[in-house]
Write a structure and sequence with these properties.
- Helices cover 50% and strands 8% of the residues.
- The protein is mainly alpha-helical.
- Among the domains are: 42 residues, no CATH class; 53 residues, no CATH class.
């Protein structure tokens, strides 16, 4: 900001202050620095608004042209956008999971629904404790927070 103040206002910083100017006046000057100033570029990620808009137009035009090609009709080889400062794409684009049969999916969904019903049916007694049925079938009196923790471990 010191360089910008010298470049645009011919004001020198001395000891963290601009001599002869109050704090609010200096704040006003800083807030109204031109868009091409080093301070505004650093705060905006290095790109001016018109540069960002030009990149956006180029990206959209690239997609429009791609859609007219054979690859675009098949949804293959999607064009990559122009990289913007501060927005690096570090995603792999891959979601991992495991296969399961229809029966396994039905059992999984049944367990999830049962757990949700148990949570909905939990009503604390006058002493603040609830009844929780363990996997072994034993009934324990625990706090609602403990019951929720047990349910999370069960899933």
């Amino acid at each position: 900001m010191r360089a910008d103040f010298w470049r645009y206002y011919q004001l020198r910083w001395v000891g963290g202050r601009v001599a002869g100017w109050g704090l609010m006046e200096v704040a006003d000057l800083a807030a109204h620095l031109p868009a091409e100033s080093a301070t505004k570029r650093a705060l905006g990620g290095g790109w001016l608004l018109d540069e960002q808009l030009a990149a956006l137009v180029a990206d959209r035009l690239q997609v429009l042209i791609w859609q007219k090609t054979g690859d675009g009709q098949k949804g293959k080889n999607v064009p990559k956008p122009i990289p913007r400062p501060g927005f690096e794409d570090d995603s792999k684009g891959t979601i991992r999971g495991s296969r399961m049969s229809v029966r396994e999916a039905e059992r999984w969904a049944k367990r999830r629904r049962a757990a949700q019903e148990r949570r909905a049916a939990v009503v604390p007694a006058a002493d603040g404790l609830v009844e929780y049925t363990t996997r072994a079938g034993a009934v324990k009196r625990v706090t609602p927070a403990q019951a929720a923790a047990y349910e999370r471990r069960r899933q």
